[in-house]
User: What shape does this take?
Amino acid sequence: MSNPKSHPEPSATDNHTPRSAIALPGLTLGFAIAVAMWGVGYITHLGGAWAPPVLIFMLLAVVLAFGGFLTARLTPAAASWKPTLIAGLTTALINFLILGSVLANPGEGAEPLRANWGMIALGSILAQTFLVMLGGHFGARANPTDPSRNRSCEWWLSRFAIVAALSALPVIL
Assistant: This one.
């Protein structure tokens, strides 16, 4: 028995996809990509053993592209670029929590931010979104007629809760 207030599930042949079917996967998977990136950062700096910056950069780029691949793969094929774009932007905005420490200029004069903070911020958003969209380009072509791509809002909200719980795991351990 379904709730009469809930949105009907889109079929594989629908041309119209509800906004929640676009926004929720993008937000959920964007948050998951950011958590995965933070996990890579945590592991590569674990125990004081610093990995080479080039290795960290490559691992983070792979996480972004693979996250885009999964986002496009798990969302309705007709509109898979929209949740992938939302996921890329969500990831970039969440990663501002870390980027802020790079942009800050504490104790060096009256200026609280680096002189080129705008270029760094814009470059970060564009680069992360581009890598997620690049992965999404390939993910959209992987089995585009799979009916399991149509997921309910409740499914995405439950996945968001799982990712949120997993994001606290390093703090607990």
Summary: The first helix runs from residue 19 to 44.
